[in-house]
Amino acid sequence: MNTSSSAAADSVAAIRAAVAALGAQINSVVLLATRDIYRPHIQANGQSPRFAWFDGHNHVSTGQSLGSPQDDVGATLLSFFRAHL
Fold it and tell me: Is the distance from CB of 62 to CB of 54 less than 8 angstroms?
């Protein structure tokens, strides 16, 4: 195997290891429950519900910021309400 092939194989191995590590963090019970919550919406509307990603957050606790000086969730909710109500 030449050097570039070896480097590519190492990169693929590193990506596989990272994906495996991420997969180990996923709680399958939560994942299946979440699917069951959203499935009726997707079937009725033909698309997934609107999803918000808050940069720098990898958890749901940012939703607990409502009423605090951190306004990213509140601003997103207000935008959604204004568009749909």
Answer: yes
What are the sequence ranges of the domains in the chain?
1-49, 51-85
Phi/psi of residue 64, nearest 5 degrees: -80, 0
pLDDT digits (tens, 9 = 90+) for 50-64: 777 777 776 777 777
**Rounded to whole angstroms, what are the CA distances from 83 to 1, 19, 34, 47, 49?**
57, 37, 25, 18, 14
pLDDT score for 82: 93
pLDDT of residue 25 exceeding 80, the answer is no
